[in-house]
Amino acid sequence: MRVVDAIARILKIEGAEFLSAYPTTSLIDAAAKADIRPVLCRQERVGVGIADGYARVKNGKTLAVFCMQYGPGAENAFPGVATAYSDSTPMLLLPLGHPRDRAQVFPLFSSARTYASVTKSVETITVGTQVADVMRRAISLMRMGRPGPAMVEIPADILNEDVPDALIEAYRPVKVTSAGANARDVETAARVLREARRPVIHAGQGVLYAEASDDLLELADLLAAPVMTTMEAKSAFPEDHPLALGTGGPAVSGPTLQYLREADVVFGIGCSFTRHGMAASIPAGKTLIHATNDERDLNKNYAADYPLLGDARLVLRQFIEAIKVQGGRPAGRERVRAELECVRAAWLAEWTPTLGSAEVPINLPRRPASQLSRLGQVTCARHRARPHHRRQAGRTSGRTAR
């Protein structure tokens, strides 16, 4: 078996359904022979974007792959990969590399050197018999902990080297593992959250990748705690839910701003709490509970009073069980939904004249946004009227790439 066929076979074993690609690379033909559908793009950054969007919609559970030629192909893909890295998108990148006898000669482009700063892992296959090990390492690192892009550079002169069939047939799909947080730390943090006067849950895209939307909803209902999401976590919590504050970014809704300001405890789950122009700022003076699967996030921009390291779904389950043991919903939380509805109604009333304005020229983007919002409400109402349809928040419903 040739190296290129071995790579295609491994992709098939790992569950790849299609290959986003830009010619020329013989991996395209090899993938087609392995019953993996090639999807060709017109520019490398677009090809990266195709794999990126697919990985997000699938919550990283189905392998997303992009391949391209060496030189200009690998160069043009850089902006898309950098975006995927900053957004923690799990995807596998398979650029060709220059032949090994000239790969280090100036000015030939080296993916292994150049992409090190925007991937979780980048490795070059230097010996054909290493292909299974190199691919397994890349896919494992791509999916474990905080997800992100991983790259395997394939020198053009290694593609046709022979690999023993038995070596590839022995390959097994990478199994992903995760862990919950320290049980004692969770118990302490859960008590703080339960006893808070005005808690706010701040959910990040880690909830989506952990497929923990149902657990987030259960915790919010248990505590009657308002929930906001980051831009990348949009749809992790249903925005038509009575406890939904909406998405926090460079602009936030009135209810989000008010509840963040008035909160005494903020529980960040599956988020990085990165101080950035595209993220809502956390006001000073809050007790901060921060649960993430990446230790680099903890105490990065905000001091965490209760830092927790673990998978979002497992940590949410730990909180739910701990709060139930501690007595469940605290007294006095029954009024939260009605209060939030009043705040939301008052805020929308302020914007009604602008959103419904018939002035000419049309008010962009507010008037169209208002009409689309009404259309969405009608669609949701019809959707809820069909009991056999089940919303799957955080999977394919309404998720945005940015």
Describe the model:
This protein is of the alpha/beta class and 402 residues long. The chain has two domains: 3-169, Rossmann fold (3-Layer(aba) Sandwich), CATH 3.40.50; 183-384, Rossmann fold (3-Layer(aba) Sandwich), CATH 3.40.50.1220. Helix content is 39%, strand content 14%. It contains 15 helices and twelve strands. The strands form two sheets. A six-stranded parallel sheet has the order 2-1-3-4-6-5. A six-stranded parallel sheet has the order 9-8-7-10-11-12, sandwiched between helices. Helix 7 (131-143) links the parallel strand 5 and strand 6 (150-155). Helix 3 runs parallel beside helix 5 and helix 9 (183-194) packs across helix 13 (312-325). It is globular, with a radius of gyration of 24 Å.
Topology:
Blueprint: H1 3-13, E1 18-21, H2 27-33, E2 37-40, H3 44-57, E3 65-68, H4 72-76, H5 78-86, E4 92-97, H6 111-114, E5 121-124, H7 131-143, E6 150-155, H8 165-169, H9 183-194, E7 199-203, H10 206-209, H11 213-223, E8 227-230, E9 244-248, H12 254-262, E10 265-269, E11 287-292, E12 306-309, H13 312-325, H14 336-355, H15 366-384
Parallel strand pairs: 1-2, 1-3, 3-4, 4-6, 5-6, 7-8, 7-10, 8-9, 10-11, 11-12
Helix pairs in contact: 1-2, 3-5, 9-13, 11-13
H and E order: HEHEHEHHEHEHEHHEHHEEHEEEHHH
**End-to-end span in angstroms?**
40 Å
The overall strand count is 12
Named CATH architecture of the largest domain: 3-Layer(aba) Sandwich
